[in-house]
Design goal:
9 helices; alpha/beta
Length: 273
């Protein structure tokens, strides 16, 4: 009986060992297979260009590779068809008398009228004429000034024949500037004169407004672009939001470079009132 049990026990142990070894082998093979598939998928993902943009909600159509191929084909097509032109292609050797064209333009009736050229006289070159030959007092203003103050100072300057200077149009727009004038002056907008002249702001270093500039002599034309390198004539600058006649009085009493002109204009204004 015991011998029979021993004979049965030995085969059972061998079968258990074989089953355990088979399970371990199968697990190892399965793990190796999964690792190979993961490596293959990773390598394939690295080679492919992604079809989705960051944050995109769906597939891009056409695909990015297709878009790149079409762009390269278009670039090659342009390279074959485009012809780079040089200056000679536009006729730089043409014989053009620029001085004659300039003189004809200056003698045009409308230009002569704008330049106040008399009959029988050639129009003077505007670059050679002082723009403010008859003026030595200037009001620098801006549409950012409160409306009541701007209205009062511009009416006063117009009455005294003092040029009103602005650094630019409202939002670089002629139409918005016109609307602003109507807001400030209403029906009187058409009779209020002013100039857009940023060169005067540069020349006299005016950065805040309102300001009144009183020069000891006339303002000559600029010789540099934008008057950046032109020295201003001797002058006084009166800054502050007060009547123009008060600025003249301050300059006259201070005895500065513009005091003589300030006294003369103040006296003329008092005589006219």
């Amino acid at each position: 009986m015991l011998r029979a049990l021993r004979i049965i026990t030995v085969p059972l142990r061998k079968a258990a060992w074989l089953a355990t070894g088979t399970i371990v082998l199968l697990w190892v093979l399965a793990a190796a297979s999964e690792a190979q598939e993961a490596d293959a998928e990773s390598a394939q993902d690295e080679k492919l260009i992604p079809e989705f943009a960051p944050g995109a909600q769906g597939e891009i159509a056409p695909s990015i590779p297709q878009m790149l191929n079409e762009a390269e084909a278009l670039a090659r097509s342009w390279e074959e068809r485009l012809d780079i032109q040089t200056a000679d292609d536009f006729g730089t050797d043409l014989d053009i008398d620029l001085d004659a064209m300039r003189q004809r333009a200056l003698n045009h009736p409308r230009v002569r009228a704008l330049l106040n050229a008399e009959e029988g006289q050639g129009a003077a070159d505007p670059a050679d004429q002082p723009r403010y030959a008859q003026n030595q007092v200037f009001l620098f203003a801006s549409f950012s000034i409160p409306e009541p103050s701007l209205r009062a100072m511009m009416h006063e300057a117009n009455a005294m024949g003092v040029p009103i200077l602005f650094n630019g149009f409202v939002n670089n727009s002629v139409f918005e500037t016109r609307e602003r004038l109507l807001d400030v002056f209403g029906s009187d907008a058409d009779i209020i004169g002013f100039s857009i002249d940023p060169t005067m702001f540069v020349r006299f270093g005016v950065e805040t407004v309102p300001a009144v500039v009183i020069t000891a002599e006339s303002v000559e034309p600029c010789f540099t672009a934008g008057c950046v390198g032109d020295e201003p004539p001797p002058h006084d600058i009166i800054r502050g939001n007060f009547p123009l006649i008060a600025a003249l009085d301050i300059s006259a009493r201070a005895g500065g470079d513009g005091s003589v002109v300030a006294r003369e204009m103040r006296a003329q204004w008092e005589d006219q009132r």
